[in-house]
Amino acid sequence: MTIIKKQGHSEEYSSEKLTRSVERANKGTGEVVDTNSLAVDFYQIVEGKSFITTRQIDVIVSGLLYVHGFPKTLAAYMSYDVKDRS
Q: Which pTM value belongs to this model?
């Protein structure tokens, strides 16, 4: 599956990148998120698609975090800023 980035570039989907971004958002929240399970849930939703946008990824991941009851991780994920990488 190809991801269409905000700047118009494209790259292949990487479950590792998805997992890392959720782990970064989860850091310090006190919530225990099973990122592997979340990645599987995500893939089940997008399975069969040839491409997806980063915005669609954000919406799906946010929905999964909400449904599974991780409000602090969701808030951090939605407010994540590239400059805050640590």
A: 0.84
